[in-house]
Design brief:
The chain has 18 helices and 21 strands. With 508 residues, it is an alpha+beta fold. Strand 12 (336-340) and strand 13 (344-345) form a beta hairpin. The protein has one domain: Cytochrome-c3 Hydrogenase, chain B, CATH 1.10.645.10. Helix 4 (85-112) packs antiparallel against helix 9, helix 5 packs across helix 6 (126-133) and helix 10 (201-211) crosses helix 15. Strands 1-2-3 form a three-stranded antiparallel β-sheet. Strands 4-20-21 form a three-stranded antiparallel β-sheet, with no helix packed on it. Strands 8-9-10 form a three-stranded antiparallel β-sheet. Fe cation binds at residues 63, 493.
């Protein structure tokens, strides 16, 4: 038996480790370990409501607007304000460019694809490299590579595909920054509005998307790899997504949430064993449960039985949760997040969840003349879903239109005491729950996509590793690392302190 501790893991956001066991050529055990204290919830308590988006913007520097957006939507619900259709359109363009497209190109080609480069494959899995040399590329006419091995030869740091992806992600970030005014941590987004200094940026975005050929090339490179990499196990087709990109019906009203969330470009859905079991966003959010077994967190009391509409709230729901910590000396600070819908389960979230939702709820989905069909929930499918989303949003932005009108906030029907902002990050379902006391924050809780995917005690990452066959000749943990990176982890989200080597460290 081989016992491996893979900590810290590189080419991810944050500090994450996994402990795995291998026996008879198969992974038999896996445990996620994140030696961080999640403290932003406590930083926010007692603060004035309007400060929440600015503080939560500091959570992550990769998906640099997602916490700002979700916190702003929670603030809009708590303040009784919402943005005009014109403001929504500008938000959607910037969010597509940076938090989805920029992030996904970076993660797919600057973080993940190195694991499939000749420098890694040729050394660790030489038989696979020999197979690659004998496998022709189906989409050679688009990307220019004749054999799969030609692609692998150009994936490593500084090679041609890496350089093209690096340039593309920089261009996407720059376009988004023209709207956000700063990225990460946008300056332009306010409750009910957005500040736009250059309205012509939309024409520049559309021009860039129509003229760009790099996205097409990177997309079809990954399409060829999708067909070639066929040796990773599937886990259950259980998914959750809160949806992505608001429609014009958005008004931040909790009572009307199911209606306006349905108009998102990617619709919300809870999927169990490949079948949609819930589409109402409010019900999906009420089904969130947080367990703290095996962590240094203290149990909290059930303060609220119902929300403001009379729906029952479970004791383990974020609106009841308090972040209380007993000790900073611990190897895991990530709670276990489950979803309740008749029974509790732990679904995957991310780009693949959004594509499943779109396909099951709205029919066939295609991008750049490639029709996406589900092939399961495995390493390459999660990775391909990431770059497929980039291609899909490229076509969306080529044709985007921004309505005329005001950018001023609009007054809604009600300012809620219990509010929630729930919108997908690139990594999946991201939500901020708050309870206010007048204009102050009484309670603030954050459940990120990585909380779900990297939940201990049987979450999607752990399930994906267990029973996976080892593909490398000398065991180094490569397969486990590929699985981890396929979930695009962001363990830094909601973190501000780290415990390491018997002392407290404050990352800068």
């Amino acid at each position: 038996m081989v016992d491996l501790s893979l900590d810290p893991i590189s080419r991810i956001e944050g500090h994450l480790g996994i402990h795995v066991k291998v026996e008879n050529g198969e992974y038999t055990d896996s445990k996620v370990e994140v030696s961080m204290f999640r403290g932003f919830e406590n930083l926010l308590k007692g603060k004035e409501l309007h400060l929440a988006p600015n503080i939560t913007a500091k959570i992550c520097g990769v998906c640099g607007a997602t916490h700002t957006l979700v916190s702003t939507e929670a603030l809009e619900m708590a303040s009784g304000l919402y943005p005009s259709e014109r403001a929504i359109a500008f938000r959607n363009v910037a969010y597509s460019l940076a938090d989805i497209m920029y992030n996904n190109v970076t993660v797919t080609y600057l973080f993940q694809s190195i694991d499939y480069s000749t420098e890694i494959v040729g050394k660790q899995t030489p038989k696979e490299y020999e197979r690659a040399k004998n496998t022709p590329c189906k989409f050679k006419d688009v990307h220019g590579f004749s054999k799969i091995s030609d692609i692998l030869d150009n994936l490593y740091f500084g090679k041609s595909i890496y350089r093209e992806a690096f340039k593309l992600q920089t261009n996407l970030r720059d376009l988004a920054t023209a709207i956000w005014l700063r990225y990460p941590q946008p300056l332009s987004m306010k409750a009910g509005s957005i500040t736009v200094r250059d309205p012509s940026i939309i024409d520049k975005v559309k021009k860039f998307m129509k003229e760009d050929k790099t996205i097409d090339k990177l997309f079809y490179i990954m399409a060829d790899l999708r067909d070639f990499i066929d040796y990773y196990n599937n886990i259950d087709e259980d998914f959750v997504t809160y949806g992505l990109l608001e429609g014009g019906e958005y008004n931040a009203d909790y009572e009307e949430m199911d209606s306006w969330a349905e108009e998102r470009l990617f619709p919300p859905a809870l999927i169990r064993k490949g079948e949609v079991i819930e589409t109402n966003l409010s019900k999906i959010l009420l089904g969130v449960r947080v367990y703290i077994g095996g962590t240094p967190y203290e149990k909290w009391d059930r303060e609220y039985d119902k929300d403001e509409l009379g729906n029952e709230i479970d004791e383990k729901h974020p609106w009841n949760k308090e972040t209380k910590i007993k000790s900073l000396i611990n190897t895991n600070f990530v709670p276990t997040v489950k979803q309740f819908h008749g029974e509790e389960f732990m679904p995957t979230t991310g780009d693949i969840a959004r594509l499943y939702s779109m396909r099951l709820r709205r029919g066939k989905i295609s991008a750049l003349n490639y029709e996406w069909e589900p092939r399961g929930n495995n390493v390459i499918e999660r990775t391909f879903a990431r770059i497929f989303t980039v291609a899909f949003l490229k076509e969306f932005l080529e044709n985007v239109e921004v309505p005329q009108g005001s950018l001023d906030p609009i007054s809604g029907k009600k300012a809620y005491v219990m509010a929630v902002g729930a919108h997908d990050a690139p990594r999946g379902a991201n939500a901020h729950w708050l309870i206010r006391d007048e204009n102050k924050i009484k309670r603030y809780q954050i459940i990120t996509p990585s909380d779900r995917n990297f939940s201990p005690l049987g979450g999607p990452v752990e399930r994906s590793i267990i029973h996976q066959k080892v593909t490398e000749e000398t065991i180094t943990g490569l397969d486990a690392l590929r699985i981890v990176r396929s979930f695009d982890p962001c363990s830094a989200c909601a973190v501000h302190l780290e415990y390491k080597d018997s002392k407290l460290m404050i990352p800068v």
